Amino acid sequence: MRFWISSACAFALAVLAAATLKNEYYFFAGYTVLMFVVLATAWNILGGYAGYVNFGTPAFFGLGAYTAVVVFKATAAPLVVQILAAAVMSGLLGFATGLLTLRLRGIFFAIATIAVTVIMETLFINWRYTGGATGLQLLRPAPVWPFESYITMLFVVMAAMTVAAIAIARYIETSWIGRGLRAIRDSEEAAECSGVSTLKLKVFACAISGALMGAAGAPMPMYLSFIEPASTFNLNYAIGALASPMIGGTAHYLGPVIGAVILSTIQQVVTVTISSELNVLVVGVLLVVFVVAAPEGILGLVKKLFPRKKP
User: Fold this and answer.
1) How many whole angstroms separate alpha carbon 202 and alpha carbon 208?
2) CATH of domain 2-305
3) What is the 3-state secondary structure of 280-301?
4) Domain residues of the chain, as ranges?
5) Rounded to the nearest 5 degrees, what angle is found at the Cα of 249, between the Cα atoms of 248 and 254?
6) pLDDT at 311
7) What spatial distance separates the first Cα and last Cα of the chain, rounded to whole Å?
8) Who's near 39: CB < 8 A, 6+ residues apart?
9) How far apart are CA 164 and CA 32, in angstroms?
10) pLDDT digit string, tens, across residues 136-146
11) Residue 310 has pLDDT above 60, yes or no
């Protein structure tokens, strides 16, 4: 109950900010921060709970973005329909990727997910309907009432998607699915001997993770009013989605949220004050610091510093 109350309050704050703030930069920056919260939360379902490090975030994110473009260009469907279509397509890609690659482990699985990204980027580079390698310019439709700006509407939509993604991750973590995924992470052989259906759980986690990443990518074309393969399938999405749970902590659903908020906020500040080219450097420095000083992330460090007293 406490989770739903806090989630409702957070979403209400986002709506209140959209109604009161007039400077659109806050919504541009806030949208990016919330998008990385969704990506980090989605990544953690497979990478944190099950222990399968996924570098294929740009493949699912990019497929979601291009699915939204195709749906909008073909039918002029509203944003909600674009997001649902993107989630379905990226979820199917996650399902297929899981069936083909989740028998691999460690570095071999990570390399396979990078290959999926390369394949998806090559596909859209050669598809003229979506602009090919040169990209496609998009015209934003009129904002829906009560929003005065389309960017403000995208910010509120991403806030709603963030709440939904965290709720899904929380349910998975606290259910039998999360217990099975943690058993896979600790010892896959022992989990199989204990009767855990490891392949089904891994494929499920890959499909849900991919669907959330695709949904996060769906509003991006309208956010930028432009889409092209090189930036849409950029590996920086994979780095940000991986680094955020490492910083915040992978054992709890709040870890990716904390890490993404900290990392994305710092990157936005660095972009405005210094240079956008330093974003990757910021990620690298923070990763090194937390891997050395707090390998279990911020939440793990807090638990060590303030342990709960057992009754």
Assistant:
1) 10
2) 1.10.3470
3) HHHHHHHHHHHHHHCCCHHHHH
4) 2-305
5) 70
6) 52
7) 24
8) 57, 61, 212, 213, 216, 237, 240, 241, 244, 260
9) 17
10) 888 888 777 77
11) no
